[in-house]
Structures are given as structure tokens and as C-alpha cells.
Design goal:
By secondary structure, the protein is of the alpha+beta class. It has helices spanning 2-28, 50-53, 92-99, 115-119, 124-136, 140-143, 146-164, and strands spanning 57-70, 79-91, 106-107, 168-179.
């Protein structure tokens, strides 16, 4: 009989304690409109807000298409199949204008779906000519090493920049690269 009363007292005492602990956890985790506990620390924030006043830059890519060219090796029997994608930096306003139609500027290279490609349409022949001239001037030995490919990317960025005008080239990607 004493054991039964003791169990009921422990049970009656344990239930409120569990409810209080559960309620405290619910509050700390931000339930039912309670303010959650959040620690927000910013490290290395500039002393002034000059960076906040500058417009943010965005990046867009455009494929220059896939091409097969003869390399400059003696005999002319070596070929390069490559696709070059160029990344450019644009300001926030231009980015919003070019991506407003849902094309995103990241993509397929068709002027109907890529707004950046459509923007470059007036200089597309110059871009294609520059790409052909640079690629056909290379030999297998120049392109067979990772360093050679990096030099090719740097040369393409330098030679293509005038045709891209206001769009600053930030990166050149070789998305396909096969030598045969």
C-alpha cells in the first residue's frame, strides 16, 4: 500500500517537471511565436560600408560553340575538337536585364535562348574568327599539357576581349577538348 502511494507521488511530481522542461525546450527552439535564440557574428567586416554602396557584379556564361579545326602540326593530319565557354562579369542592372526573360545567360549558345549570345550577335563573326585563328595556330605539343591548356585559355581571353566590348571576360572554360 505504501509503495502504491509512493509511486503515485513520484508520478505526480514527474509529470509537471517533464512538462516544464518540454515547454522550456519549445521556447528555446522558437516554437509558437517565441523568439528563437540566434547568434549572428560577422567576421572581417569592413570598417566602413563602402562595399555595400558598390553595385554587385554578376557572372554570365556564353558558349562559343563546338568546332573541329586542323592543328598547326607538320603534315596537317592532327585535329582538335573543342567547345569554348566564356564567362563575363556584368553589373547587377545588366544581369537583371539579361536574365529577366528566364534564359539565365548560362547556356546553350543559341541566340533564341541565350540573351548574352543575342547581345553579342553584332560581333559574333569576329568572335568566331578569333577563336578559329587562335586554335589553328597551336600544335599538339603546345596543347597536350595542362600548362599548355592554361596558356591557351589566357590567350583566348586576351584575344577575345575586344570583341566582347563592355563585357569583361573573367574566365575561359574548355568544356570539350579532344585531339586526334
Amino acid at each position: 500500500m505504501v509503495k502504491r502511494l509512493l509511486r503515485k507521488r513520484v508520478l505526480l511530481l514527474a509529470i509537471p517537471v517533464v512538462l516544464v522542461l518540454a515547454g522550456g525546450g519549445f521556447f528555446l527552439l522558437g516554437g509558437a511565436g517565441a523568439a528563437p535564440f540566434v547568434l549572428n557574428i560577422v567576421i572581417n567586416q569592413p570598417a566602413n560600408d563602402a562595399s555595400a554602396s558598390q553595385p554587385k557584379e554578376q557572372h554570365l556564361t556564353v558558349s562559343l560553340g563546338e568546332r573541329v579545326v586542323n592543328l598547326a602540326d607538320p603534315g596537317g593530319y592532327r585535329y582538335l575538337k573543342a567547345e569554348v565557354v566564356v564567362e563575363v562579369t556584368v553589373d547587377q542592372k545588366t544581369y537583371e536585364r539579361l536574365t529577366a526573360g528566364g534564359g539565365g545567360g548560362h547556356g546553350s549558345g543559341g541566340s533564341g535562348t541565350d540573351p548574352l549570345r543575342a547581345e553579342l550577335d553584332h560581333s559574333w563573326p569576329k568572335i568566331q574568327d578569333t577563336l578559329t585563328m587562335v586554335l589553328t595556330s597551336k600544335t599538339v605539343d603546345e596543347l597536350s599539357t595542362p600548362e599548355g591548356k592554361e596558356r591557351l585559355k589566357a590567350e583566348l581571353a586576351e584575344k577575345l576581349q575586344p570583341a566582347f566590348g563592355e563585357y569583361q571576360i573573367t574566365e575561359v572554360y574548355l568544356t570539350q577538348f579532344v585531339i586526334q
